[in-house]
Amino acid sequence: MLAATTALPHWEEPPADRPAAIRQVKAALRARIAASGRTVEEVFAVVEQRIKAEVDDITAARGRGETVWPVIDYADIAASTVPAGTAAKLRRRGCLVVRGHFDREQALGWDRGIVRYVEDNRFFENYRGPGDDFFGTVGSKPEIYPIYWSRAQMQARQSEEMARVQAFLNGQWKSESEGVRWFDPARDSLYPDRIRRRPPGASSAGLGTHLDPGNLDLWMTQAYQQAFRHLFDGSIEQYDPWDAAYRTAGGQYQGSTMCSAFRTFQGWTALSDMPHDQGVLHTVPIPGAMAYLMLRPLLADVPDDDMCGVAVNQVFPASRRWHPLLIEALSGIPDVRAGDSVWWHCDMIHSVAPVENQQGWGNVMYIPAAPWCPRNERYSASVRDAFRTGSSPGDFPPEHYERTWNGRFGEAELNATGRSGLGLR
Questions:
Q1: Helix H or strand E encompassing 93
Q2: What distance in Å separates the CA atoms of residue 315 and residue 259, rounded to the nearest whole number?
Q3: Is the distance from CB of 322 to CB of 309 less than 8 angstroms?
Q4: Are 265 and 227 in contact (CB under 8 A)?
Q5: Exposure of 230 by Cβ count < 10 A (0-12 exposed, 13-18 middle, 19+ buried)?
Q6: What is the distance in angstroms between the CA of the first residue and the CA of the last residue of the chain?
Q7: Which of these, 120, 278, 308, 310, is most buried using a 10 Å CB contact count?
Q8: Could you give the CA distance from residue 209 to residue 207 in angstroms, rounded to a whole number?
Q9: Which residue ranges in the chain fall short of pLDDT 50?
Q10: 88: Cβ–Cβ under 8 A, 6 or more apart, which residues?
Q11: DSSP state of 9
Q12: Domains recognised in the chain with CATH numbers
């Protein structure tokens, strides 16, 4: 925990005078690092050297035509036979594709079921356009469907196959540290998210490089200051991007792009086959890059009232202007088939490549790993209400298309995993 003698100023709500607050917290962070006997530049140099080694390794692998993303067969996860070398690559890269997570025909059937669900309820006739500015940039007509409670989505969320993979991913994290158990790796909170359906022939602008764990709150709230304590107290060598300490205690500043839940991994499940060159997900597969992103604004070339473009109520941008070294490592997923799932560490920079005249469908269900913890338990109360009424969950625009829809997944269809994830057990 941060020492009382070097306490940092913090704002649990967005500060009224943000430029002044940024100047204040940056000065305090620089002073705290200096109190350790190291300068900001010295600490950042340690991070930059480490990141440079990872970037060089990734670009060399790409140059050899190798797949940067680890690939693990679901059968190995289910049988606890994941090779040690593959598990080590997962922790180093912070992302993976799970092959055969679900049977391909089951995934294709879920896709057809979603189509029936939205068509039977006249979604396209009643669609009012993008509900948020962020996904509105992809040129949605729609591409992102604000649908949460279809049978397909809920069956996948509460399935045994999903629970096994989520527990495996949660197990990559240090869930106990500082004398506290921060989350239950074996129990997920069933965080509800949307679906994407991009048809053949579509063109999409994609999404630029960004990350989702927060924005200014990452520097300004007490819980995140504690979570990133080793970045700010001169003990950079102890920073562990897999340590959940303090992350499950706090939350994000409220806004249309925030996430109330703690996710160990973000993820989606493929409902169609997708070649690697058809507007797919890319990441910077370096979990420790968060140290670079958090320390970069403290260097002298960044204006004192600026956090490298990070603002409230916007996703955290990663740019060639401030983070050129990181952008060099941006790497796309390999080909995936319906039923595969794709996962990336919650801190990782990611983007979606643009595409013109897409070949084949590009359909996914967004399902993360969001283990049961105080933060997720708090959010689950509003999720239960949204589930029962067919409403849009609190983290998303209040569009509420499904409130009157037929065929919505009902409470009687919940299994033990589903009830546990909604806090109903």
A1: helix 84-93
A2: 10
A3: yes
A4: no
A5: middle
A6: 34
A7: 310
A8: 7
A9: 1-5, 132-140
A10: none
A11: P
A12: 40-421 (2.60.120.330)
pLDDT at 257: 64
The CA distance from 45 to 207, in Å, is: 30
Is residue 36 within 8 Å of 2, Cβ to Cβ?
no
In this predicted model, what pLDDT tens digit does every residue of 71-111 receive, in sequence order? 999 999 999 999 999 999 999 999 999 999 999 999 999 99
Q: Which two tokens stand for residue 169?
A: 């991913």
Give CA–CA dist 235/10, Å, rounded.
Answer: 21
Residues shown for the chain: 425
Contact between 153 and 147 under an 8 Å Cβ cutoff? The reply is yes
Instruction: Compute φ and ψ for 132, nearest 5 degrees.
Output: -140, 155
Q: CA angle, corner 137, sides to 133 and 139, nearest 5? A: 125
Considering only CA atoms, which of 121, 129, 125, 122 is closest in space to residue 146? 129
What does the block give as tokens for 375? 């933060």
Q: How far apart are CA 243 and CA 380, in angstroms?
A: 23
The Cα 300–Cα 401 span in angstroms is: 49
**What is the distance between the alpha carbons of residues 418 and 266, in angstroms, rounded to a whole number?**
19
Tokens 């140290």 appear where? 291
Other Cβ atoms closer than 10 A to 120:
11
How much is the pTM? 0.94
Q: What are 323's two structure tokens?
A: 């983070």
Residue showing tokens 């305090």: 28
Kind plus residue range of the DSSP H or E element containing 75: helix 74-78
Structural contact between residues 260 and 375, judged by C-beta atoms closer than 8 angstroms: yes
The C-alpha atoms of residue 366 and residue 341 are separated, in whole angstroms, by: 10
Strands 341-345 and 144-145, bridge-based pairing: unpaired
* 8 A C-beta contact, residue 316 and residue 211: yes
